[in-house]
Amino acid sequence: MDPTNALFSNEPAPYMKCYEARNILIEEWSDEYHRTPFLSLVDLDKLISLPIFQFGLILKSKMLNDAEKVLLKRKRQQAKKNVATELLRKKNREQDHLLEESVRVLEEKREVLLRTKEELIEEIAHYQNEDM
Q: Has keyword Coiled coil (predicted)?
C-alpha cells in the first residue's frame, strides 16, 4: 500500500503513527522553529515522504534527543527546587529555634512576674496585718 494512501486509510499501521508523529512535529517544533530550527514545514513534508523506516529513525533520534534535553532540564529544575526547598527548611528551622527561644524567655518572665505578684500580695497582707 502506498504510504500516502495509508495515511488516510482505516488501517492502524505504522503510517498512522507516522502521521501522528508528523502532527506532533508540526505542532510542537514549529513553535520553536524560530529559536532552534529543526525542520521547516517544507522539510517536514519531505521527511514524511521518506520510507517509514528512515522517517522512524530520524524521528526517533530527534525525539530521543529532545527527550534527553527535557529530562536534563527537568533534573536541573528539580535540583534548583531541592536547593531552594532545603534553604527554606533551614530558614524555617532557624525561625522555629528563635520562636522556641522567645517562648522560653516569655515563660520565664511570666514565672518571675507571677512570683513577684505573689510576693507583693504577701507583703501587702503582711503590712495590713501589722496595721491592724
A: yes
**Burial environment of residue 132 by CB neighbours within 10 A (0 to 12, 13 to 18, 19 or more):** exposed
| Polymer length in residues for the chain | 132
Cα separation of 13 and 7, whole Å? 9
**Quick check: is 87 in a domain?**
yes
In a domain, 12, yes or no: no
56 within some domain = no
Evaluate whether 90 touches 97 at the Cβ level (below 8 Å).
no
Structural domains of the chain, count: 1
Q: What is the pLDDT of residues 21-67, one digit of tens each?
A: 666 665 665 555 544 445 555 565 665 565 555 656 666 677 667 77
Q: Tell me if the pTM is above 0.85.
A: no
Domain hosting residue 122, numbered range: 72-132
